[in-house]
Amino acid sequence: MQKNIRYVIFGCAIALTLVLLLQFYWITKYYKVNQNDFEKEVNLAFEDALKKEFSLRCDTIQALIEQRLMDTTEFKISSEYSNRHQRLMYTISNAHNLKDKFISSSFSFNGISTPLLPGDTVLKRMIARKFAYNMRTEDLENHMVYYRTQNLGNFVDSSVKKYDFDTSRLRPVLNRYLAERNIRVPYKFYFRRQDSTLNRGFNSKQTTAYPIITKAYPTYTQKPGQQYVRAMFTNPFSYVVSRMGLIFAASLIIIGVVAFSLIGLMRMLIKEKRLSAIKNDFISNITHEFKTPIATASAAIEALTNFDVLKDADKTQRYLSHSKNELAKLSLLVDKVLSSSLYDSKQFDIKPENIDADDAIQKIMEQFAAQPGKTVSWTYNNNAGTSNIQADKLYFEHAINNVIDNAVKYAGNDVTINIQTHLKNNFWLLTITDNGIGIEANNLPLVFEKFYRVPSGNKHLVKGHGLGLSYVKNIIERHGGWCSIASMPGKGTTLTLAWPV
């Protein structure tokens, strides 16, 4: 039986370990998948943010070019029909040097074919807007500036430098694209003079602090050492866990349920194993207890039958008396075993009455002190201020009798018992201290269990069957009280019985 239990416990432990490892492996793999998705998302967001930031810069510079062209102190815009091109041509001249000009032949002005008359600011703005847009697509988006007129080229060049790549403008754009993807992981920008699409050249300290690094993109800036930029993200644990959501929670719940079930099963098996050991010990003890009175009575009857003891009246009376006493002990033992089932089922009734505890305790102690075989010394001090309590007298005496019986049995030849009473929190506390052998700390939580006896191997140095303290505990609890025990090996034991008042 014990071997089978060990196999079951071992199997449960292996099953629990395998479930935990499987769930851990599955969650780890799923975590890595979501981490890879995170890396893809931040790369897309970073690329979109760079494009958007550049587009915003181009919008700004385009608007500045349009506004600059409308400044008559800087530029003159005129129109003239070209026989060569067979269409209307627009000319933009430097107001400070009219020879510094260019004609719209290099630009597309589709949709505008009206001569520009003096004072026509609406058409002039249309021309300026069209030119600024064409200059954006041909110059700015190709990251170069053509000097079509000197002052326009200088203006565009200074505007491009003024609105050069800047992370202070890139960061809010990137934050918006990340927020659209529900990403709120801290990050920083990282610049290099030269870079590649591969994540090379990063030391372990950097990759530990920032495990997710985006691809490198050119900034087209003139600032030294900032030709390429990346975004470096800290560990995206919170994002990944939020993505895993219910699946992660479900896995934890499954692990918890399986672990709880298997641990509960193992605890039940261990408890059953302990109960089996207690049962076997009880059977051994009770068998020993039964054998003694049976053997004594059998010997007396055999003497009466086979050795002419009946002819001697004194011997006959003595042997009959021994048989009667032993059978009475046997009957008492059987009653206790049968009664233990009754106490467990809570079917026994108590009938509280006003009793004199002092009188009951003194009578019990006097009976034990008068028994032969051991010298019993006892003291009793009532510090409660009263000896009258409400309790069932019979069960009250049974409880005290069992405690004192244990104190006498587990002490040496000279027994010392000290009994104290006092009131505390509406309970009448009865404290019984002996000078017995004491109990190990690991056995104290079990002494009130049915059939339990402190292990002593297969030796029966002290008669008992493990019902005494279990019986006492049932009596006390049926009265609405409680009991506790304190003990040290070689120092004795103290039992406290609390009766409600």
Roughly how many Å is the radius of gyration?
A: 50 Å
- CATH-defined superfamily of the domain at 349-500: Histidine kinase-like ATPase, C-terminal domain
Average of pLDDT: 82
Give the strand content.
15-25%
Protein name: histidine kinase
Pfam families: HATPase_c, HisKA
InterPro entries: BphY/WalK/GraS-like, HATPase_C_sf, HATPase_dom, His_kinase_dom, HisK_dim/P_dom, HisK_dim/P_sf, Sig_transdc_His_kin-like_C
Catalytic activity: ATP + protein L-histidine = ADP + protein N-phospho-L-histidine
Can you describe this structure in just a few lines?
The chain has 501 residues and is α+β, with helices and mostly antiparallel strands. It contains ten helices and 14 strands.
Would you write up a description of this structure?
This protein has 501 residues and is α+β, with helices and mostly antiparallel strands. Among the domains are: 186-235, no CATH class; 241-341, Helix Hairpins, CATH 1.10.287; 349-500, Heat Shock Protein 90. The protein has helices spanning 2-69, 121-138, 150-162, 167-180, 204-209, 237-306, 313-344, 357-370, 393-409, 468-478, and strands spanning 75-82, 87-94, 97-103, 187-192, 212-213, 217-218, 228-233, 353-356, 375-382, 388-391, 414-424, 427-434, 482-488, 492-500. The strands form 4 sheets. It has a 5-stranded mixed β-sheet, with helices on one face. Strands 4, 5, 6 and 7 form a 4-stranded antiparallel β-sheet that branches. Strand 1 and strand 2 form a beta hairpin. The longest helix has 70 residues, at 237-306. The chain is rod-shaped and about 165 Å long. 21% of the residues are buried. Mean pLDDT is 82; it is low at 457-461. Its EC number is 2.7.13.3. InterPro entries: BphY/WalK/GraS-like, HATPase_C_sf, HATPase_dom, His_kinase_dom, HisK_dim/P_dom, HisK_dim/P_sf, Sig_transdc_His_kin-like_C.
